[in-house]
Structure formats: structure tokens, C-alpha cells
UniProtKB/TrEMBL annotation:
GO cellular component term of the entry, any: membrane
The name this protein goes by in its record: ETC complex I subunit
Native source organism of the sequence: Rhizobium changzhiense
Pfam families: NDUS4
Locations listed in the record: Membrane
A Gene Ontology BP annotation from the UniProt entry: electron transport chain
Length: 101
């Protein structure tokens, strides 16, 4: 049984950063998923795939995994690099591309 510990990224559908400060422990897939031949649904006998545990810090998530004997790997979060651009830069005479309407 193995798991990954990560901090989720901001959702692409909203500009807010809700639930991005929590750390998630998610179990890895142990058995392959099967497709139901009649309905086409995807199913699995592995119930741990459905479990997502949230923690306030990475240390708490790691302590939980160690206490329960779970092999884990930590995926470091990638913070976005913000590019600061001012509106007057659109009208600079040193622009590399011409400004047109």
C-alpha cells in the first residue's frame, strides 16, 4: 500500500485559492480498473482509491502515513510565478511588437 502526499493546485475554473492550503494524502491504485461490458461504466475493487485525507500541514500528513505504515512520496507544490505587467507598458515606444487596434 502506497500513497502520495501533495498540496492541490488552484482550480482553473475560479480565480480563488480555496482548499489550496491543505495537504492531501491519496492512495495509489493497486488493481486495474475494469469496464463493465453492458453499461460501459468503469469500476474497481480497490476501495482505497476513493479515500482522500486532508491535513493542515505536510508534517501531519507524513506523521499519519508513518504511524499507519503507509509508504508515501511527497510531491512538492509548484507556486506560480506571477509576471507583473503595468498597463502603460502597452504603449511603450520600446515594445518588441507594434501596438495596433
Amino acid at each position: 500500500m502506497s500513497a502520495k502526499i501533495y498540496r492541490p493546485a488552484k482550480t482553473a475554473m475560479q480565480s480563488g485559492k480555496a482548499k489550496t492550503n491543505l495537504w492531501v494524502l491519496e492512495y495509489d491504485q493497486e488493481s486495474a480498473r475494469k469496464i463493465d461490458p453492458i453499461m460501459g461504466y468503469t469500476s474497481s475493487g480497490d476501495m482505497r482509491q476513493q479515500v482522500k485525507l486532508t491535513f493542515e500541514t505536510q508534517e501531519l500528513a507524513e506523521a499519519y502515513a508513518q504511524r499507519n505504515g503507509i509508504e508515501y512520496r511527497v510531491i512538492a507544490p509548484k507556486d506560480p510565478v506571477r509576471q507583473v505587467v503595468a498597463y502603460p507598458d502597452n504603449f511603450r515606444y520600446t515594445r518588441t511588437q507594434p501596438w495596433t487596434h
